[in-house]
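Cross-posted from the bioinformatics board.
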Amino acid sequence: MKVRIWNRNVLVNWGVPIAAVFLALVVGAFFLGLAGANPLVAYRSMFYEALGTRYGLTETVVKAVPLLLVGLGICIAFRTGMINIGAEGQMIIGAITGTAFALSFPGLPAPLLILFSFLAGFAGGALYGFIPGILKAHLNVNEILTTVMLNSVALQLQFLLLRGLMMDPQERAYGTGYPQSASIVEAARLGRLIPRARIHSGVFIAILLAVIVFVLLWKTTIGYRMRAVGKNYDAAVYGGIRVKRYLVLSMVLAGGLAGLAGTIEVVGVHYRLLDGVSAGYGFSGIVAALFGQLHPLGTIPSAFFFGALLFGAERLQRSVGVPSAMVHVIQGLVVVFVVSSDYLTKRFLQKRVDVGFKRIRQEGVAAPEELPPQGKSNE
Amino acid sequence: MRSIKKNVRSVQSIELRNVTKRFPGVLANDSVSLSFESARVHTLLGENGAGKSTLMHVMYGMYAPDEGQILVNGAPVNFRSPKDAAEYGIGMVHQHFMLVPSLSVLENIVLNYPSPRWPFLDLAAARERVLAMSNEYGFGIDPDAKVWQLSVGEQQRVEILRILFRDASYIILDEPTAVLTPLEVKEFMGVLRRLVADGHGIVFITHKLNEALEISDKITVLRSGKVVGETAPCDTDKNQLAGLMVGREVVPTWQKRGAAGEKVILSVRNLSARNNKGLKALKDVNFDLKEGEVLAVAGVSGNGQKELAEAIAGLRRVDGGEILLGGTNLAGLDVKHRIDSGLAFIPEERMTMGVVKEFSLIENVILKSHGTPEFASGIFLRAKKIRESAVQAIKDFDVRTPSPDVVAATLSGGNIQKVILARELSSRPKLLIAAQPTRGVDIGASEYIHKRIVQIRNEGVPVLLISEDLDEIISLADRVLVLYEGQVQGIVPPNTPVEEIGLMMTGGSTHYVVDGCEDSETPPTPK
């Protein structure tokens, strides 16, 4: 149902945000100038590095995978009205539990080992999303605060584990003490797609999940209820929807997807747990989802775009000598512009509807309401 | 106490010339020309959305007109804000009062009024002036009472005092009687007469024909932003005015058939509940609702009607008592189970509870039924089936929309109410609770809603109708239950004199005898 509207107005829904990104880049050029770079050179090098080379392209995809997975969770949570800022923490917990499973059962056959590692990662993130979810649903504790705080808890927990319980025994034996876990066995690793590049099969999993999340949100009763709760809590209660259940469920799914992102970073890219495994994806994923209109399928291209932006910015430092922190400036600008462009999109769509109503008034009013024949005889 | 008076011009006449005001997608006022004189009650009559309030907001400086002019005493003026209008002695009492509940009457009145002893308040001088004015017009307001302690009628008088305090010569009243009981309306009309006798010009916005005929010196009818008629009460009658308002003849298209049955469907026993502030809002409410019966609940707003509807629908926890629907006690069940046992509910908060504004009409129609085997197999929605059925319902209930895929927020109040009706009635309910079903809805849609309610009543479904519109109650009800401070004040037949019902609504005796004041207050009989 909703999809039809979405398709029909594809031009508006995508044209406006893309224009917004363009404007954000224009304003970003000003800041690049302040940082002493020629904005045109900087942007050219950014996009060339990210999209113009084999290495850049593969790395863009590598970054897009966690962004997409986190973004999908954000779509679910935000659509249900839960402002989940805790994807970073959920991702860390998922990375921990996924790694822990892979390290604990190295003897399992490869498919099972990978599958169960995924499940462990999903479960870890889900549990970590469940906490703010249940607090919100039953005690009305603000989920923004709890999720933000839990990010710190997760980060410190990872810090502790990597320097204690989970530290690579070899590091300890040699006394180097580098904070990372042991390497996971070959069987637990995701296949690399092409030689001499880190791009891995996780990208297919992420895209498949995007389709599944789309179906969940728009083709099932569960998705319908979650969206109803998110758009109008009171109407959902009135409609007999068990809102608390769906508030919690949305956070469980969002946390689970973020947790899966964490596990995939380990089994696809690093092969071990290390500090900074989440690399800010938990936050950038929110931006990717918002840019994708909180639509699972929209989040796919959006995640690739931000993947390219992240990689290009990393390279910016090396090629043009601009601090890579500049990318956060540009990211922030993109968010501001995209979110405010939302207003324009809505205005435009409203206008289209108004035109429709005008037609009704012109044609419809001429034909009065059908009055049943007994109407007059009643008097 | 003249010292604290400001210099405000005295206004003899206000003229609007070709005023046009547009909002995105809406032409609110379309080249309206009108003139107002002092010492007159000029009524603006029209349906909701006819542009009455917008026009007055233009005259009062809240909106700038897109085209056209305002002339005061024949000279063009340019109001940039309500403050400018106030300097010309134009004041407005809004539909929703703009008072600070925790402040006293006096503090509210001097709020934002320049004090002669700036930066200190001069409450003593102001108090004297307020008391004098209150006595002059017979308002009987204690300047030191806190606003939250006052009744709605008293708060309205405070709003008027606030305007008079600023030496207004023109007072615009936006639907002032909507919030009043019948007795309060009578008092209010008295206040208006005194103000007019004193030389004030009154602009009275309403959609109630009786009131327009009773009080006006001049009536202007607006429809779709245009002036469609201008007349005096003695030259017209209700039918003509209604026809002008709606643009066609209004004929009731429904008729109640047969008497109510004897079989009790809903039985409410000793029901108690609290309001949002945690205070007792329902106290041991008892009543039976029989097959094919419309039981109307009358009462002044805030006497427990909302809580009663919500308690039965499962949206409010009950403190005690039973709600028996066909023998099952609903009191402990959640909303889902109550819906499943056949309870349909048209909520008072149409936009915030009745629909999900951002959902399409189709999605709104299935709000309660999306999980039934008809519309879902397992967890998957049956999109085709849903579309077919919802499109049919939208058609059956005459929802005027360009497409079933537009979001509900784009529809007018009346059409949204029809969407809600479509959803609630197509589920073949055993019981319908309708809370303020036609409030803020235009006459056409309102007629349609009444027709549908009577239709299911004739089919034998009992209806609990909660309304603040006594005309609606009297025309639809089989019995009228009057709620006062959360208690059932009495259940009376609908042909009980309105004055008596009105008195019960304010907690008066149930054996009220109509006194002789009737004759002097009746509207002039149309020719």
